[in-house]
Design brief:
about 625 residues, mainly alpha, Serine Threonine Protein Phosphatase 5, Tetratricopeptide repeat, about 75% helix, elongated
Amino acid sequence: MNNIKFSIKKIKNIPTDPKVLYTKANFYIKLGKLNEAIELLTQASVSDYNKAQYNLAKIYKDEGNLEESEKWFKTAFKNGIEEAAYDLGNMYYKLNAYEYSIYWYEKVAILGHLKAQNNLGVVHYKLGDYNRSLKWLKEASEGKLSDAFYNLGILYDTLNDCDKAFDSYKRGAILGNAYAKYNLALIYQEHDDYKEAISYYKQLYKIGYEKACFNLGLLLEEDNDLDEAKIYYRKGAEKGNIDCNYRLAYIYDEQEHYEDAIKYYKNAYEKNNKLAGYKLANIYNKDSNLDEAKKYYKEASENNIIQATNNLAGILFEEKNYEEAIKLYEKAIEGGIIEAIENMGDLYAQTNEIDKAIKYYLKIDDFLSVQIKLANIYEDLKDYDNAIKYYKKAFDNNDVESLYRLGVIYENLGNYEEASNFYEKAVNNEHINARIHLGKIAFENEDYELAKKMFEVPANEDNIYSQHMLGIIYSIYYKDYVSAKYWYEKPRLKECIESIFNLGQLSLKLNEDLEAEKYFKEGAKLGNKKCQYMLASLYYKKSYEAYEKLADEDYDNSKEVFDKLPQLILNFDQILLAPFEVIDSKLEEEDEYVPKYILYIDENLSNLYEEKLHNMIVDGFLEFNIDNITK
């Protein structure tokens, strides 16, 4: 720090030569002392030092003092700084003084100044003089200015010369122009050449171009590659793109990452995306943050999102504010929301007004969800004829679960033949719980081959009951004790006491007493009396055998003791069945009377893509809301 102070002190003592003043001014600029720099540059400029005049003009331009800036740019140009003419052209262009901008651009354009040539082409394009625009843009492009190739592409697009436009964008892209790459990507996308389109979008993603990030995200989202889409949406969202924020939130919402979804929905909502507010309400509703949910639903409803009216009614329904809920459901029904009819049926079912519930359900009994609800109601009422009727209707609408429920009804009625028939149909439609039931019936009928076949799939899906039953089948039917042990071990890890006991029994059968002791100890610690008994029996067996050996050796009174010991006969063949109810309890038992919320509004992604750019680039300006990131 002392050295710096010393240097500054020395600078203050330097003579007032214009070059020295210019150097000293630049030092002050680096220190952020702009007023001191202006004073020194002004002194140097008065002495006709052109570099000082040019820098002073740029400072005044940055400070917004255009009058002074114009004065010193003109002076600098007069004194040999050609670049000042380009800056004057930019200044007049920004002020829409196009004749003056043309005047100054031409002074350096004829000298080969590429950016001035490009900007002349843009000004003439803006004035509708396409011939002069083409002339200057071609000259700039001959100098390999990438922006000029992009602008030529825009001009040829305007002239409907697609081939030349494509060629211009291609050449601009080769030179690294981001906007040429973007329009090129869209051309490839329009012609279904997604490989090339994605290639260019990915190049633009690397430099953070938000429109490309959004389009690439959409392509991947449409292809259901959501994790990959998130990468590109996130980059666009970081750049402030509202659509990227919304789509990113949408994916997080779908993936149930609600904290992230809320963050990005709020970003979009704060920029007046009304649908984002509706989506926020849905998340708050699912998270039971009902005050927030009602607030956003109310706003969305007022913004004519009729689905929000249905959902707001749903919250009131769950809060048992049935009178208000009915009013809103009626409004939603008038607005064409079919789900509201079903919800009205749900409401009356919840209040145990079953006849009214059935009345509403019957209005829309062509809908699968309603058929299932009617079937469930009739099953609960033991009206099996109607239950079977609507489960069959539901199956006609491709609901496999209804086949399964038909099997359950017939099984509960003791009609195992019909039950097996429907379970088999459900199995053919890959219903895993039907396999468990069918396996159980087959096992009870000693059809072990079928039982094994049925249990294998759910067993591999970590179904404890099926794993246990496979252990039994391999043990008693196939005598394949290695496979039996393999399957018993899986439920054992989840403390299935029946599997632990059976493993102990299997070990005894194989004369592996130490292994048996290990399993029975494990079961005993879990409080199982049978395991405790078998463990005690093993210990007794050890004592019995020890006394027998000592008696043979006539040790002490061991013979007398041994003769009094009763001989214990262990039953190695006893096995335990895991209770089927344990497996059955894992089946989904949803509350049929929860309101049906509308969480999705159809959004056609194909209509959301950002379009091609149609505005030209003027270096140094954001005239067309384009950040010129290529130089």
